Amino acid sequence: MGFVASIRPAGRVKGPSWCFAFSGQKIVVEKRNERISLPLSHDPHSFGLDSPPIYLGALNGVDCLAGEITEGRELPETMTLVGLRQLFLSVEEDLYLVAGRAFQLVEFERNHRFCGKCGAPNQDKPNERAKICPNCGIAVFPRMSPAIIVAIRNKGRILLARAPRFPEGMYSVIAGFVEPGESLEQCVQREVREEVGIEVTGIRYFGSQSWPFPNSLMVAFTAEYAEGEIRVDQEEIEDAGWFTPETLPRIPDRISISRKLIDAFLKEVSSKQ
Ligand SMILES: [Zn+2]
After folding, report:
1. Same topology for domains 3-111 and 145-272, yes or no?
2. Are 152 and 160 in contact (CB under 8 A)?
3. What are the two backbone dihedrals, phi and then psi, of residue 247, each rounded to the nearest 5 degrees?
4. Hey, where are the domains in the chain?
């Protein structure tokens, strides 16, 4: 059945619900014997949600609610706060995907309480995940930023680069946000040119992933090296190079689409050997 998104429950909420409660950038979790799990609760207000919860939909028939608690509020003893990334490494994939969705919708709720044009308090738009200004009629939708991510291949090697903000020793594929007026393919070419100074060809769609750090929709591609020498700008990228499966550096976690791109490259190379 998986996750079925909806802006309101199909019937009365019955049974316990998955509760995605945030305090700033962190999420409330249950912690027993060092094991982290998401709270499944009959009463989402028991750990102090500030406002009526946002209905997200149902995961395998279990309702999912999201909300916010005041920063600094004391939690029940069995509960604690963790960052989303830590949660992603601790719970099942279907739950962390809903957590990513919850995080973005709580943020949308927090940041769009008033109309950006006239300042009147916004209302929920009926039948749609959006806010509308009752005064001037402007509707706003949850913010999403499309970004490209691309694995560039060159004769059994893959281009990986390192940004200064990465954990020590980690390299990944090239990524960047799409600019207004640009197609995804143009964005791939521009980002690659800007970050590593080379030209690519044969750009092919690979897959996509919602990525809540923050509000990104990652659209992944593969591409082939065409021409040019690697040249890094030393600001966004501090080092880049061609790697074979044997010389691969530390790469991102299994949850990211960057890792899926790198894994697909490894599989392809090994199938040719
Ligand atoms: Zn307005």
Report:
1. yes
2. no
3. -110, 15
4. 3-111, 113-142, 145-272
Cα angle: 5, vertex 253, 169; to 5 degrees: 150
Tell me the fold of 3-111: Nucleoside Triphosphate Pyrophosphohydrolase (3.90.79)
CA of 144 to the centre of ligand 1 (A): 21
Separation of CA 141 and ligand 1 centre (Å): 14
Distance 135 CA to ligand 1 centre (A): 5
CA of 124 to the centre of ligand 1 (A): 13
Q: What is the pLDDT of residues 133-190, one digit of tens each?
A: 999 999 999 989 999 999 999 999 999 999 999 999 999 999 999 999 999 999 999 9
Q: Which fold has domain 145-272?
A: Nucleoside Triphosphate Pyrophosphohydrolase (3.90.79)
- Per the CB < 8 A criterion, the answer to whether 28 and 65 are in contact is no
User: What's the CA gap between 255 and 240, in Å, rounded?
Assistant: 22
Q: What is the pLDDT of residues 64-123, one digit of tens each?
A: 999 999 887 888 888 999 998 888 888 888 998 999 999 999 999 999 999 999 999 999
Instruction: Find the 114 Cα to ligand 1 centroid distance in Å.
Output: 8
Interval between CA 92 and ligand 1 midpoint (Å): 41
pLDDT at 13: 67
- Kindly give the distance from the C-alpha atom of residue 65 to the centroid of ligand 1, in angstroms, as a whole number: 28
**Cα 160 to ligand 1 centroid, rounded to whole Å:** 46
Does pLDDT of 38 surpass 90?
A: yes
